[in-house]
Structures are given as structure tokens and as C-alpha cells.
Amino acid sequence: MFKLRNVYRDLRQFTQATTFYQQCLEIEQQIGDRYSSASTYHESGRVAQDLQEFEEARRNYQQALAIKIEFDDRYSSASTYHGLGTLAEAEENYAEARVHLQTALKIYVEYKDEYWGAIAREALERLPE
User: Fold this and answer.
1) Residue 78, pLDDT above cutoff 80
2) Among candidates 85, 76, 16, 79, which has minimal Cα distance to 51?
3) Which of 37, 42, 44, 59 to pair with 86, CA 20 to 30 A apart?
4) Cβ(127)–Cβ(94) under 8 Å?
5) pLDDT for 20
6) Measured distance CA(68)–CA(63) in Å, rounded
7) How far apart are CA 97 and CA 13, in angstroms?
8) Would you give the DSSP letter of residue 113?
């Protein structure tokens, strides 16, 4: 079921993806798997962002980030900072987008992740001054 949620998102079947993410969160909470719920919150944020439900996306990204920070998962937090950056960009809040994307880029560089670092740089470059 946990992998199925991503299939629905990839197929852009957002209603089904949202349902599966919610079910996954419930299961993760029942079994006390707080760390795994960070990924689920992050992916739920992506779906909400795709649906232009920006407040829901922000809540989910922030929940994911809080858990990643709690577990000192710095590398994984980069993707959530990146998500927050692209969300702020979609809302035309370019100053906030820049802060989050720069944070993501700093972490990608720290971990020598050239692929995601390049993607973060491209996102930063497309932001208006």
C-alpha cells in the first residue's frame, strides 16, 4: 500500500493518492512509526501543491520538515526545503522561495549531491529578482 500511493501520484490520480496517503499516515501513527510519516507528509504536500491547495501543502511540508529535524535527518530535509521553495514560487512569494531553495542547495552541496544541487540552482535562477 505504501508504494501504491506514489503510483497514484505519478499517474496524476490525486484523489486516490490523497486517500492512500491518509491511510498510510493513520497506519504509521497506529504503529508509532513517526519517522516514516515524514515521507508521507512530504508526498501529501506534493499532491496538495499539484492540486493548488497551497495551505494544505504548506502544513504537510512543515509537518514533514519538523519530523525530519526531530530525527536529525538533514539530507532528507533538503527535499522538503526544496518543496517549500517551489510552493512559495507557485504562490509568487519569491523571497520565501529563495530562502528555502538556498537552504536546500546548501544541504545538497554539503552532501555532494550534484544532481539535486543542479535542480535547486536552476530553480533559484528562474526566480525573478
Assistant:
1) yes
2) 16
3) 37
4) yes
5) 80
6) 9
7) 27
8) -
